[in-house]
Amino acid sequence: MGGRTAAVLAGLRRGGRFSTQVFAAIARDRILWRVAWRNVWRNGRRTGVVVTAIAVGIAGAVLSMAIQFGMVFQMVETAIATDLGHVQVHAPGFRDDPGLDHRLDDGGRAGGVALDELPQVAAWSPRVRASGLITSPRSSAGIQLIAIEPAREAAITVVSDSMVAGAYLDGDARRVLIGQALADRLHVKVGSKVVVSATDVHGDLAGEAFRVAGLYRTASLEMDRTTVFVRLSEGQKLLALGEAVSELVVRARDRKDAADLAAELGRRLGSEADVRTWRELAPLLVYFVDMFDQMAWIVYAAVFIAMAFGIANVLLMAVFERTREIGVMRSIGMNGQRVVGLVTLESVFLVLVGLAAGFALTGLGLFLLRDGIDLSRWAQGLNALGVSNTITPVLRPADVLAPVVVATITALLAGLWPAIRASRAQPADALRHV
Amino acid sequence: MAILEARGVHKVYETRGVETTAVNGVDLALEPGEFTVLYGPSGCGKTTLLNLLGALDEPTRGTVHLLGRDLGQLSSAALAQLRLHELGFIFQAYNLIPVLTARENVEFVMELQGVPAGDRKARSDAILAEVGLAEMADKRPLEMSGGQQQRVAVARAIVGRPAVVLADEPTANLDSHTASALLDLMLQLNRESGVTFLFSTHDPMVIEKARRRVRLLDGRIEADEREA
Fold first, then answer.
1. Which portions of chain B are predicted below pLDDT 50?
2. pLDDT at A433 over 80
3. Which of B209, B199, B153 has its CA nearest to residue B54?
4. At A26, is the secondary structure helix, strand, or coil?
5. How open is the CA angle B154-B156-B162, to the nearest 5 degrees?
C-alpha cells in the first residue's frame, strides 16, 4: 500500500513538473502561439463547425441563465417592492408570533431617529400589520390588513404606482386600497362600501366601514388577493393600538447595503428591537435564488462536458492528420512539452474563438430581448410566483466570467489527451505515418 | 575523433510476431566535415540507419555516439536538445511546416534554440539569400515549387549551426536540374562552413559527387569507399 502511494505521489510530482515545463514553454515560445493560431484555421470548415457548436452552447446557456435570473431577480424585487423592503424593524418576538402582542409601543420613534442618521437609508415607514376579514355586500375574504402612512409608504413600495382604478389613499377619511383580484372576488369597485374587521389588541373583535379609494395590481397575485391598505391612524384606532406600530420598513439606497444597514441599526437599537434583512424575512425566496445558482452550474456542466468531447474529437483528428508534421517538429528539436503546449494552445484558441462568437450571439439575443419576453399567456401562474407578465433577461458579471473560466479549463483538459498522444510518438514512427 | 559513430547497431521490427531485421550490425564512423552518402537498393535499411544515427529511433542492439555521447543513455528531453542543437534534418518530402512562411520555417529552429529575435532575422535573411530564396521569404510552402521548398529545408537544417546534417533522399522528388543545383549548394555549404553531411540516396548523381560512399545491402555495410 505504502509503495503504491509512493508511486502515485512520484507520478503526481512528475506530472506537476511536466505541466510546469509545458506552461513555461507556452509563456516563452511565441512561435507556438503563431503555429497554434494558424493551425486552428487550417481546416476552416471543421473549426467553423466546432466554433458554432461552442457558440450556440454558450449563448444558449448564458441566455437561459439571464432569462431565469431575470425571473428570480423579479421575484426578489417584487417581494422587496411590494412588502418586504430591504430591512424591517420589529419588537423582539414578532418573528415567532407576528401578532399585536409584539409591537413597537413608541410608534417606532427610536428606530426612526436611528434611521434618519444612517446614510444608507433611502426611506422608511411605520406600519401596523394584522390579520382580518373584509366583507362586501356580496362576499367576504380573509385579508392581511396593513395600515400605512401613505406618503412614506409611497417612497418604499410600488403600491402607489400600481393603481389601476381610483386613487391612492388621499385626504378623505376611512378609505381602503384593495387589489384588483380581491375587488373581483368581492364584486366591488371604486367607491363601494366594505367592512374591515379584525381582532384588536385586547382580543376583542373590531370592525369599521370603509369606502374603496382605489384598486391596485402588482406582479404579486398573492398580494393583490389578500392585502388591504388603510391609513396608519385609522388602523391604530381600529385595533386599539394607541400610537404603537407593528414594524418599521426600510428601503436602502442599494440592496447590497441591506446587511450592513441591518447590523448597524441592530447595534444602535440594542435588544429593544429585532432588525432583519429581506433575506432573513423571506428564506424561501433566498432558497429560490440559491437553487437557481446551483442549477446554473448544472446547466454549465452539461454544456461544457458536451463541448469537451467535441473539442477532444476535433483535436484528436487534427493531431492524427498531422502526425507526420509533429514527427518533423520532434525531429528538428521540439520536445514533448512544446508539443503538448502547441496542441493545448490550439484547444484554448478554439474555445476562445467559440466563446467570442458565443458572447456575440448572447449580445444579439439580449439586444433582441431588451424589451423583455411577453409571457402574458402564463400570467396567472407567473403572478402567483411574484413575476410580472414580461421577463427581462438580467446578465450578471458572474454569468459572463463563469463560462470563460470553465471553458478555458475545459479546453485545457480536452486538449490534454490529444496533446499527450502527440508528444509520446517516437519521431521515427511519426515520420513513417502517411 | 568521429563526430557520429554507430557500433554494432541492429534494428529489428516486429509485426504480428514476425521479426524483420532492417539494420544488421552496422559499424560506421563519420569524421567532421565529411560529405558521405549511404546508398543501396530500396529496403536495404538506409532510412532506418539514418533515423538511428539522428536520434529519431532507438537501436535494438548496439550504440550510437554523437559528439562522444551515447544516445542510448540520454532521456527523451536530452535527445530533443541534441537534435535541436547538434543535428539538422532534410527529408525527401521537404516537410516544411505549412502554416509558416519560408522565413518563419527557417527561424523556427532558432526560436526553439532561444536565439534573440534580432539575430534570428539577420541569420534567416542571410541563409535564405545563400540558398537563393531572398525574394520568397514571405511565401508559404504551398506557394513554392518543390525545389524551392527543399532549399528552404536545407536552410532550416543548417541555420541552427548543427554538427551533422542528415538528409534522407533529398533529391528524390526533384527534377535533375533542380537536384543538381541543390547538391551543389550543399557541397558549397560543406566546403565553406565545414558542416558534416550524411545522405541516404539512390540518385547516381548524388553518389558520384559524394567524397565517401557507403553501400548498404540487407541492413549491412557492403562497401565503404573514400575519395583519394
1. none
2. no
3. B199
4. helix
5. 90
The answer on A223 and A179 residing in a single domain is: yes
Q: Which of A321, A331, A429 to mutate to test the interface with B (most CBs of B within 10 A)?
A: A331
| CATH, domain B4-95+162-226, list 3.30.70.330, 3.90.1200.10, 3.60.15.10, 3.40.50.300 | 3.40.50.300
Distance (Å, whole) CA A54 – CA A350 = 9
Q: Is the pLDDT confidence value at A381 over 80?
A: no
Kindly state the average pLDDT of the residues A237-249.
94
How far is B89 from chain A, CA to nearest CA, in Å? 7
B113·A333 Cβ contact <8 A: yes
Report pLDDT for A46. 87
CA distance B117 to chain A (A): 11
**Chains A and B: how many Cβ contacts under 8 Å?**
80
- pLDDT given for residue A1 in this prediction: 55
Contact B80 A330 (CB under 8 A): yes
* Sign of torsion over alpha carbons B77, B82, B88, B90: negative
DSSP characters for A80-124?
A: IIIII-SEEEE-TTTTTS-STTS-BTTTTHHHHHHHHH-TTEEEE
Cβ distance of B77 and A42 shorter than 8 Å? no
A379 in any annotated domain: yes
Domain final residue pick, A213, A246, A272: A272
CA distance A231 to A243: 13
Mean pLDDT over each residue of chain B, to the nearest integer: 92
Does the beta-carbon distance from A335 to B76 stay under 8 Å? yes
For residues A108 and A275, the answer to whether their CB atoms sit within 8 Å is no
Residue A281 lies in a domain: no
For residue B176, list its beta bridge partners. Answer: none
Tell me the chain B residues in contact with residue A334 when contact means C-beta distances shorter than 8 Å.
Answer: 80, 84, 112
Residues near A11 by Cβ (< 8 Å), separated by ≥ 6? none
**Domain range enclosing A220:** 92-272
Residue A200 clears pLDDT 80, i.e. is over it = yes
Looking at per-residue pLDDT, the higher value among A29 and A136 belongs to A136
Residue A321: predicted pLDDT: 83
Position A299 confidence tier, pLDDT thresholds 50, 70, 90: confident
Closest CA to A139 of A99, A178, A169: A178
What is the number of domains present in chain A?
Answer: 2
Q: What is the pLDDT of residue A403?
A: 80
User: Where exactly are the structural domains of chain B?
Assistant: 4-95+162-226
| β A227-231/A175-179 pair status | antiparallel
Question: Between chains, do A42 and B99 touch, taking CB under 8 Å as contact?
Answer: yes
pLDDT band at residue A171 under the 50/70/90 scheme: confident
Amino acid at A214: G
A237-273 core/surface letters (b: 16 or more CB in 10 A; e: else): bbbebeebbbbbbbbbeeeebbbebbebbbebbeeeb
